[in-house]
Give the backbone structure.
Amino acid sequence: MKKLLIGNEAAAWGLYHGGLGLVSSYPGTPSTEITEFLALHNDIHSEWAPNEKVAMEAAFGASLAGMRSVCAMKHVGLNVAADPLFTLSYTGVTGGMVICVADDPAMHSSQNEQDSRHYAIAAKVPMLEPSDSAEAYAFARSAFDLSEKYDTPVILRMCTRIAHSQCSVELGERENVPLKEYVKQPSKYIMMPAYAKQRHPIVEERTAALTAYAEDCPYNRAEYAAHSDIGIITSGCSYLYTKEVFGDTVSILKIGMPNPLPVRLIQEFASSVKKLYVIEELDPIIENHIRSLGISVKGKELFSAIGEFSQKTIREAFLSEGLLLQAPQPQGPSPSVPGRPPMMCAGCPHRGMFYTLVKNKISVLGDIGCYTLGAVAPLNALDSTLCMGASVSGLHGFNAARGKEAEKKTVAVIGDSTFMHSGMTGLVNIAYNATNSTVIILDNSITGMTGHQQNPTTGYNIKGDPAAKVDLEALCRALGIQRVRVVDPYDLKACEEAVLEELAVEEPSVIISRRPCVLLKYVKPKTPLAADPEKCRGCRKCMKLGCPAISFRNGKACIDATLCVGCGVCEQLCAFGAIGGRKEA
Amino acid sequence: MKTTSVMIVGVGGQGSLLASRLLGTLLTDEGYDVKVSEVHGMSQRGGSVVTYVRYGDKVYSPIVTEGECDFIISFEKLEAARYASCLKKGGRIIVNTQQIDPMPVITGAAAYPENVLEEMKANGFNVDDFDALAPAMEAGSAKAVNIVLMGYFAACSGMEKEKWLAALEKTVKPQFLEMNKKAFELGYEGQTSRTA
């Protein structure tokens, strides 16, 4: 059966057909759909874990129990799961285990563009890297065999372009892999020094064996051109751009297993060409390996370590090498137009809280989620965004450094899912090490930015079935915060009261700003509001909200009825009663 | 066959993903080698979005760069201008005349270039502008703008209408099929009535 699939769906099919029994993941663009597609199968266990570390450890437990298992995450998620990863390399696996990691070159939806290949090298585990959906299917499917044969977790590295590009994939059938017998193996699985010392040499031997495998691995493939002095070593989507530009006119060594890298294969390929290039996005991993073999090669001097490539990148680089590649001719240059950055949706419940914070000139340590968009104009509400959970723990340090002066006018904002992921420990630190900090949990009852995944606070699991629901108020109290209050962010007066009171008190507090995401299916939009041009004085106060439904036309506010969901926040702001219109509608 | 490149551009939330999946499904059914590149995540929140569809005998790159695009289908005027330089000589840009203000315009930091399509035409761009919002409302929802535009594109795509409709049935949810079929027909008629 041939199907047009995005890379993530293809990888999901490959894992499923490869005999996967359990998947545990935390959502993160561009990795999320792998787990979403796996969750459609009812004969495997699928789940959203609270964070990537928990997910990887759940997958470890399943592997220990003899089941083929998977965890999937974005590149920064692997930082969170790095602790189990490095020691999983020592224990190895019983059931095959695959770790799917999706990098985000060009940072379409991320806070950095780190290169996950460093982790494979550092943790000494093999990594496979497909170039398209068909390879994502094949590599994912075979990764379990590789994992079990070499007794190691295997990383499947995706990137945004491969994860979210579709091509045709020939799908096979699911392999029936029975649960292996569970045998207690202390020296393999209890990583205390005495046993870990026995395991480390096994890891080094395994790397040697995998390097030997890399020489003949079908995923590392030399494509020799008949009449060319040029050789290009490349991988992932860079391979596609290289083929787009050169077709079969140059020799190409395609690397499908970036760790460990082959030696003999590269030496042979290099000796067959006069000029050797390496084209890889992000860091010079393959390039450094080639140089370590004493082979001269051109790489990062031509191809940046920053951002994504394209066929254009490659054409331009080879133009500078004196290779004249004809550039396509555009009809004309694009007219210069204003940018269109992403923004919070009309009716987003985060907006009312951000407006309140900005109005009161409060410094805000932010976090990762839709509410990171509170940073953009006109709200400009955030002072920092680092990583998952850093708002809460960062606020504690900020307040400890600046004392009372900061405590009275600084808050942390963090979403419900992010709080579950890694906000809780920071809150414990505030209570335990006693700063008078105020944390605002922006509870929109969903994991928003990644496209609406359930989490432990929503009361539903990955299948949408009812599940245990974390009581955020009770949790915060249990973590040592006595003052916990809930406000509706659509009520500006209540927001302001809550923020000013909690900042004023001499003890740490949590404000839960609770209102479900307007994009949730069960949230029914209210009648759109309208601005009365007779009453509008053009003061632009409503424009301070940065609501995409409100624009300013001919000196008056104007509400787009197709976007407005009638949240009423602008109505509360207008001093002239110009915004309303519920009754007429 | 040489590779043909199509770009579907617009504002996050306008449904360019569904439009690209419709085209991808059709082209796969037609037996072409197809690559579709989508956008997920942060830029979907009201930002500028672009999806690429490429087809031919053998397609490598999933993306389209400057001067390579045969057809740009733009769901919004400003976005048409933003990606115009991707259009190759002889290419065509279909534009929904809808105007959606980006945040810099909303905040007053920038002005919306009202006459941008006229400027593009004056500068030699092959612009085919069309109001897709009114037919979408007629079909039942402003959200059907994407399918109206695909109907309009279908009429100049050189591929049979029945095959488009078959692909549409495969792509949209059954409960929205009737509305989308109507939207497609209105877009298709919009194009054919122009050329007639």
